[in-house]
Amino acid sequence: QVQLVESGGGLVQAGGSLRLSCAASEYSFSLNSVGWFRQAPGKQREFVASITSGITDYRDSVKGRFTISRDNAKNAVYLQMNSLKPEDTAVYYCNKRWEPRWSWGQGTQVTVSS
Fold first, then answer.
1. Euclidean distance between CA atoms 94 and 78, whole angstroms
2. Does 34 score more than 90 pLDDT?
3. Does the pLDDT of residue 1 top 90, yes or no?
4. Positive or negative CA dihedral for 100, 106, 57, 78?
5. CA 95, 99, 103: angle at the middle one, nearest 5?
6. Side by side, which strands form the sheet with 4-7?
7. Residues near 8 by beta carbon (within 8 Å), at least 6 away in sequence
């Protein structure tokens, strides 16, 4: 079972930037489509961005502001977040883009103040 560890979150003012990182414990991570998801308080977890063999996909609300990338040699995926908005506040997670997914990591908290 792949273990996922997210990091890089924090408190930032609106308009600021953060870079999230996700490290996976096994090589099989690099063989899969992977993505970032987020869960705001009281809301369901939602898709944010994914990367598949270099092809990226984003939810509409983050297009042009977020960039997903990966380093297969390091079993890692990243999310560069620019022009952050208060509505981006959530716990961010990485995982397979599609079911069945690995067990979720602890996530990393992103808080954007207005």
1. 9
2. yes
3. no
4. negative
5. 45
6. 4-7, 18-24, 76-81, 66-71
7. 18, 19, 20, 21, 108
Q: Are 34 and 23 in contact (CB under 8 A)?
A: no
Q: What is the pLDDT of residues 46-60, one digit of tens each?
A: 999 999 988 999 999
Q: CB under 8 Å to 110, separation ≥6 — which residues?
A: 9, 10, 12, 18, 20, 38, 81, 84, 88, 89, 90, 91, 92
Size of the chain, expressed as the number of residues it contains: 114
Interatomic CA distance for residues 100 and 81, integer angstroms: 27
Query: What pLDDT sits at residue 28?
Result: 81
**8 A C-beta contact, residue 95 and residue 69:** no
Residue that has been written with the tokens 């990367």 in this structure: 51
What's the pLDDT score for residue 31? 87
pLDDT digits (tens, 9 = 90+) for 68-101: 999 999 999 999 999 999 999 999 999 999 999 9
* pLDDT reading at 27 higher than 90: no
